[in-house]
Amino acid sequence: MYVCNCNGVRMRDMAAAVGSVAQSGAPDVDAVYEACGVTPKCGRCKVDIARMLDDALSTSCAIAAE
Ligand code: FES
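A: This is the predicted complex of the input protein with FE2/S2 (inorganic) cluster.
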């Protein structure tokens, strides 16, 4: 399954990039594109990437709070 059809980025690759960016000092959607080695084109996937990043950040915050 592709998250970003324009760049052919699959869910597993995007999830790995999101996980890496979530642990960085400045996590944002543009950093996820950069981690995947692509640039946004139509931008339709930005909402999905932002949701994945929010989920990763809230998970890491929950772990940190324990
Ligand atoms: S689907 Fe990702 S830039 Fe178009």
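The pocket of FE2/S2 (inorganic) cluster is lined by residues 4-7, 40-45 (CB under 6 Å). The helical segments are 11-22, 29-36, 46-65.
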